[in-house]
Amino acid sequence: MPLLEEKVTHFETKLTHADDRIRLSHWLPPQWGGMPHIRFGKRWINICWLLPLGFLCLLIGIAVAQELRQIPAVQAFLARYPGHLTSPVKWYGFPTWLRLMHFFNLFLMFLIIRAGIQILADHPRLYWNVNCTPGTEWFRFQHPVPAGRIWTAKDDSVTIPGWLGIPGIRHSIGLARWWHFSCDLLWVINGAAFYVMLFVSGQWAKLIPRSWEVFPNAVSVAIQYASLQFPSNDSWVRFNSLQQLTYFFTVFGAAPLAILTGLMQAPAIANHLGWLGRVFHRQVARSIHFFVMSYFVFFILVHLTMVFITGLVGNVNKMFAGVNDNGGYAGLAIFLPAMAIVVIAWAIATPFTIRHARLVQKTGHFIIGWLKGLVEWFDPNRHYTQADISPHFWPNGTMPNSEEYNALARDNFAGYALRVGGLVANPQVFSFAELKAMPKQEQITEHFCIQGWSGVAKWGGIPMRHILDLVKPTPQARYAVFYSLAEGGEGGRYYDVHRLENMAHHLTLLAYEMNGEPVSVLHGAPLRLRCENELGFKNIKWIEAIDFVADFSHLGAGQGGYNEDHEFYGYRMPI
């Protein structure tokens, strides 16, 4: 027994510390993808064609609208529906709370969009099917998956410019997620406060349509804008009908949809919703989330353009100074410093993240980590059928390359043994034959990779709760540390940490079968973890040992796992 404890302790010495910043010389080398393409049937179309096509449509739209205004029936329509409801609302102006929330929303939205693009670059393909089989995507900004070689999901990630993404380097999704989710939470809080103030103050009357006449009035406004004869700017007392419909959809449609589709990409949530999670699965949510982001980008560009061309001074006086004045410069005196703050934040976000990556990770954990912990309590209980099994399951991870592992693989892992120790009453060494003789559990579940892809597979193995019953963790044990036979990308033993509560879940198992066959070397043979309320990297492959501990701060860089240490992920990842 003392030899066993010494062996388990020995794994800790194989862990490596990690830098608190990104060392570009040690990071995944840059790899540029292709231009964004959309698939129509079997044909891929470069979306850059949308720019000249959009400009052409704009020119045609202007010409058509100007001709329409010469038709008497259209003139009568414009006279009947001038573009707004007949009387202004009682609550006018832009109060201080609205102006502050408006700016804070803009500030956060820029960061959210940039971090979201960075996240998308880690798996630069979008699908409507849950399987993520190469060639079935409808959108990509990466080349086709090369044939005749192993192509991992990490291989598929691409580089985007640092001025666009945060932090703009390849496979920096861990840091991008901290930015994205932290700003998301602040954005949701700001939005919730906005909803409350909107109805408490009465400002809702400017934003929410109360008559069906808003639709013909909106058409009227569209004709006026398109003909370059703009309607009067009465935003101090009322929005025109096109503005009202647009703002209403943005606030009460697009914003909630962004939140919903973001949450539906989380394994703990999607796996808890049964049939709804199967229909509105991760890839559907991911695609719709992309459309919502695209809408916000389009909205911001159009909104800012209209601010400038419909009277910059008057507009910023209203929205930044809270005065209805088209001649003074009080608004510009606030607007210009406010935009300088946005520009400075945009410029320093990437270099700051690279130099202070650990600080970004810890700050993100402070802001959003508690919510991730709450989401972990969702019970993942969704199962798929045999017909749902994915024809392609993306490989990932740095495979073992030691002679020890190669010898085990050559012998079909007959000599493999799983060591379980640490804070347990009964430390054990289980041979592979003993593991296979234990009660077997099978389940068909969906895998959620942190990079964005998903896949359904049938897993067979030993329920982790059975291992807990055999070794009996002591009351001091709070975490299970899994050590892999593989090293991480930066060297040192790969490991990961799980809460004991997750290990006791009925769907958590040590899998030695995948789709009715022994787990392949590529996917984690001889033994890999399945923990269905966590993202894929937590489902550690090539398991060599399990150690139960009271704390993990002394392991590696103390963040709860190899990717957590070296790539700045979080150790609780149900979202």
Would you write up a description of this structure?
The protein is of the alpha+beta class and 575 residues long. The chain folds into two domains: 2-21 and 383-566, Sulfite Oxidase, Chain A, domain 2 (Alpha-Beta Complex); 91-121 and 160-211 and 239-375. Helices cover 45% and strands 13% of the residues. The protein contains 20 helices and 14 strands. The protein has helices at 2-12, 50-68, 72-80, 96-120, 153-156, 173-201, 204-207, 214-226, 241-263, 267-270, 274-279, 282-309, 312-321, 330-355, 357-375, 403-410, 432-437, 464-471, 500-503, 562-566; strands spanning 37-40, 43-46, 125-126, 139-140, 417-422, 428-431, 441-448, 454-463, 479-487, 493-499, 509-514, 517-518, 528-530, 543-549. A five-stranded mixed β-sheet has the order 6-5-14-9-10. Strands 7, 8, 11, 12 and 13 form a five-stranded antiparallel β-sheet that branches. A four-stranded antiparallel β-sheet has the order 2-1-4-3. Helix 6 (173-201) packs across helix 15. The longest helix has 29 residues, at 173-201. The protein is elongated and about 90 Å long. It starts with a helix and ends in a 9-residue tail after the last helix. Residues 1-8 have low confidence and may be disordered.
Weakly predicted, low-confidence segments: 1-8
The counted number of beta strands is 14
Kindly name the structural category: alpha+beta
> Major sheet, described briefly?
5 strands, mixed
DSSP strand content? 5-15%
Helix content: 40-55%
Largest sheet strand order: 6-5-14-9-10
Tell me the count of domains: 2
Report the principal-axis shape.
elongated
What is the CA-CA span between the terminal residues? Answer: 40 Å
**Average of pLDDT:** 92
CA radius of gyration is: 28 Å
**Helix count, DSSP H or I runs of 4 or more residues:** 20
